[in-house]
Amino acid sequence: TPGVLFVASRIHQQNDNSPNRLTPEKLCDWYENIHIQQVVALSGIPSAARYEALPIPSPSSAHPEPLSSNPPSPSPPSSTSSPLTQPKYNAQDEPFSNQAPWLTVYEMPDLEFRSSKEFKGLDGQSEPERGLLEGVFRRARFDTRFYEEVGRWEGEGGRGSPAPFLLTAALAPSDDADFNAWYQSEHFLLLSRIPGFRRTR
Predict the structure, then answer these.
(1) Considering only CA atoms, which of 5, 22, 6 is closest in space to residue 132?
(2) Are 103 and 7 in contact (CB under 8 A)?
(3) Could you tell me the pTM of the whole model?
(4) What's the CATH number for 1-56+95-149?
(5) 111 burial via Cβ count (<10 Å: 0-12, 13-18, 19+)
(6) Neighbours of 158 (CB within 10 A)
């Protein structure tokens, strides 16, 4: 069964300023120049593409107040105008891409490979050596997901290398058959008209 392995990663908050502090530069250098090379060297994962999330404005900056040359008149204090009673922005409401800025997509011609001894021997699937465990795996989070491919629609020029830009969407349709029919007959046609569109899966 073909599919993909999605690995979203981020660095845990760190309070120390020691030389061993895990920085984005250190994480990306290890991941791109060492870890990915080890993964695609496996017999069941022929290729990978790594992406970095584009910045998404927070709710407070997405809808700025319009500028006015006349400042508003001060209003009398009341219980409803207190900032303590206003809903506060919750970091848990952030888009997933803000929480996990890096995403790597690994092609897997057969998802059963994930059960193999070869795959389970990877750092992260099995416990890494102490230096790597302390320096990376305990200072970063890697959310790993396996997705079975249930459909693929190619646009013009869609075959070949990975797209330079990736849009992901997690959906939970109430009826798979209706959703797939709508996606194939309507939604894909709209997507295919977007300049630069390559494929959807």
Answers:
(1) 22
(2) yes
(3) 0.74
(4) 3.30.70.100
(5) middle
(6) 14
- 109 forms beta bridges with none
> How many CB atoms within 10 Å of residue 49?
16
Q: Which stretches does DSSP call E strand in the chain?
A: 3-11, 48-52, 102-108, 140-148, 153-154, 199-200
Predicted confidence at residue 26, as pLDDT, reads: 93
pLDDT at 80: 36
Residue with tokens 């919750």: 90
Cα–Cα–Cα angle for 69, 71, 72, nearest 5°?
135
Beta bridge partners of 5: 106, 146
Gap between the Cα atoms of 81 and 60, Å rounded: 17
7: tokens are 């690995």
Mean pLDDT of 116-130: 94
Tell me the C-alpha distance between 131 and 40, whole Å: 23
Q: Give domain limits for the chain.
A: 1-56+95-149, 154-201
Judge whether residue 25 has pLDDT over 50.
Answer: yes
